[in-house]
């Protein structure tokens, strides 16, 4: 019997001497029958397992978590098994003539991380290597797949009448068609060419994983909005002294740390970083590490179609993931030092509840981590566009390439807007710290100023500024500075929400390009950019004025305002200059628009690393008694000191409401507050009343 193309069952069989050919034919026929029985047993076993998986199929169309990552591997394994049966005798081939339609059903969730060899190769090897025969090479010489269980038997929705699963044409001898049920409940016919089936199957799985990450990219941005909102609510609930006492006294030691708002907030961005790294790995595997020969769009060339990436850009893109990992490690180590570097002298029972200064410092120090995560996702979006992966993954969807290009660019812009929003928030917290230190110094000097006055008590009513300098001198300055910084934060928030809205409608299932549907809406973007530039300039100038005006006060206790200010605003200045430079480069035709965007995102990934090192040096706790310990001074409770913790008002504003620090006027005429220089200053009860009335005013910060 002549061997088929690609199979070598018995080399040298036709050259056997007379008299022994009949024995070899009988032995070969017996081995084939044995192989056929083994194949039928494996096929029935596969059907039983698929039926068991179908029973656990949920109503929403997604399998249970325990069964994920197995669908496409089994579908490919069954197709591989059918190849081993293509060499059966003619009776088996005739029995397939009246078989059911050649379709293979499968379940969703193509993003399988299970190695293909675990479920595919054992069944294939068992059928491809009968005892005493040569090694079988795997190719496309399959005439028809064996009968499979129907959709009704597997409890799956039947395919539509127009689907290829109902009427499949005769398979070409060199090709194999596979009809599967995709994750979005569509029937899709896949074509496997002749060659290495294992390599094609792995490429198929990688493409499905890439498509999965594209589909969840919008969910990632929606999650970020929920994360910011949930973090705000979490801080409101947990950042109170009563809640933290309950947490530290009732829960075991690891839990008080794990449920802190800052820990959960940082954990979310670490998870997003890991998710981006997985996407980068899948993209690199699919594109052969950005090899230009693997960039194929498979359609009509359009503006932005895949092409060769410049060699410097290729190496920059390959270096972005490790640089972002180093940035994250530096930032996380710096954040951890705010809690374990030294033991504070107040509120020792609430160890994992940060003080007010540490809380504001951590919100500023987190900026390199968040900016790095968004910059890495921008690199991923541009690589998807330049390599053509975004066009290949959605070629079966009724979406034009221009729409996919618009969607990818909107994701890129949304990432930058969200990063700028958090940068504005970091600038806002830096301003709060500067003004808080100035306010504390003024309140420390007020009692000394009052004691130095020798005029009679009746003449004090004529003094306004010296009687309450905080109210008449500092508070107007605080409000003026706060207006500029707050407007900058509000402007960035509006821009981010606007960009999220555009991306939301451009992504599945809407695929609406607002630039064509509502053209006037996109005309607001240049105005928003101009407003953000103006408000950021005003905010920076306001903080510069504060730093120069109160430089001597801010320098106390090693605060180093200049270094901290550079760490906060250096990135904004650099990104602004980068935007101007990239615009000039594109005008001169040195780089295409997509290449310039990729270069911009890669430079951001590289710039956040020195920014993280600078931030760690400027904001790290240095020694006992540094400016972080200025939060101590509220009073005493039992044998311990009380201090200002995260989410609480300033020590002078909330002094009267703290337990253990409230003194009745009938018991004592004066109250005592522990000062920074360990001296006790006497403050009359009338001063305490004026402080309480000041607390009733609307707080600026």
From TrEMBL:
Give the transmembrane region(s). Answer: 369-391, 487-510, 530-550, 562-586
- Which Pfam families is this protein grouped with? Solute_trans_a (PF03619)
Q: What residue spans carry the region label Disordered?
A: 86-106, 147-169
Compositional bias annotation for Low complexity? 95-106
GO CC: one term? membrane
User: Domain of life, per the record?
Assistant: Eukaryota
Q: Where in the cell is it found?
A: Membrane
Q: Which UniProt keywords apply?
A: Membrane, Transmembrane, Transmembrane helix
Q: What is its main location?
A: membrane
* Bilayer topology: Multi-pass membrane protein
Name of this chain's protein: Uncharacterized protein
* Naturally occurring in which organism (per UniProt): Symbiodinium microadriaticum (Dinoflagellate)
